[in-house]
Amino acid sequence: MDFESYLRVLLSVWVGLGLGQLVQALHRLARFKGTINWDWLPVTWATLAFLMFVQTWWAYFTILQVQIWTNLFAFLLPLGVFVILYLICASALPDATKTPVGAAIDLRTFYMEQHKYFFALWALLLVLAVAVSIVSRDGLHLRGGDGFRTAGLLAALLLMRSPSRRIHAIVTVLSVTALVVYILLFTLRLA
C-alpha cells in the first residue's frame, strides 16, 4: 500500500464514523416512540454536514497527492478536518436514546440550545480547511474556493453568536445555496 492510500484509509474511517452518527441519529428519531416536533433548521444542517463530509472526502483524493502530508505534523491538519467533521455530524441531531419513551423531542429547542457549540465547530472546520488549502498549494495565493470558505467562516461566526431564528433561517438558505454552487464549481467533474 502506498502512502497516499494509507492516509486515505484512515480518513475514510472517519468518514464512515461521522456519516454513521448522522444516519443513526436520524434512524433513532424516526423510530422514537414519542412526540417529535420536527424543525427544518437542524435537519437542513444535518444534510449540509452530510454533504460537506462527502465533498471533503472526495476533494482529499486530490489534496493528499501533495508530498507535504508525509510529515506527521502537517498531516494533523487534514486529520483535524475529519475529526471536526465527525463532531459536527455527532452534534447535528439529538440522541433520541437520551429521551425517555413517551416524552417529546423538540428539534427547534435542541437547535437553539446547542447552536453555539455546533457553529463553533463549523468555524473551526473552515479555518482548518483554509489552512489545508494553503499548505497543499505551498503558498499563500488564494483561489476561488478560499472565498467560499471565508464566507462560510463568517456565516458560522454569525450563527454562533446570534440567537435570532430569522438570521439563522436566512444564513441557512444562503449556506445551502453556497455549498451547492461550491460543489458545482469546484468538485464535480462534468467533462
Q: Estimate percent helicity.
A: over 70%
Q: How many discrete structural domains? A: 1
Structural class, from helix and strand content?
Answer: mainly alpha
Strands side by side in the biggest sheet = 1-2
Q: How large is the share of residues in beta strands?
A: under 5%
Q: Biggest β-sheet, characterized?
A: 2 strands, parallel
Low-confidence regions = none
Give the count of helical stretches. Answer: 6
Shape: globular
The value of Rg in angstroms is 18 Å
> What is the rounded distance between the termini?
30 Å
Q: Compute the number of strand runs.
A: 2
In N-to-C order, the SSE pattern is: HEHHEHHH
What does the average pLDDT come to? 87
What does the model show?
With 191 residues, this protein is mainly alpha-helical. The protein has one domain. The protein has 6 helices and 2 strands; from the N terminus they run αβααβααα. It has a two-stranded parallel ribbon. Helix 1 runs parallel beside helix 3, helix 2 runs antiparallel to helix 3 and helix 5 runs antiparallel to helix 6. The longest helix is centred in the middle third of the chain and has 31 residues. The radius of gyration is 18 Å and the shape is globular. The two termini are 30 Å apart. The mean pLDDT is 87.
Keywords:
two-stranded parallel sheet, 3% strand, 191 residues, mainly alpha, 6 helices, globular, single chain, 2 strands
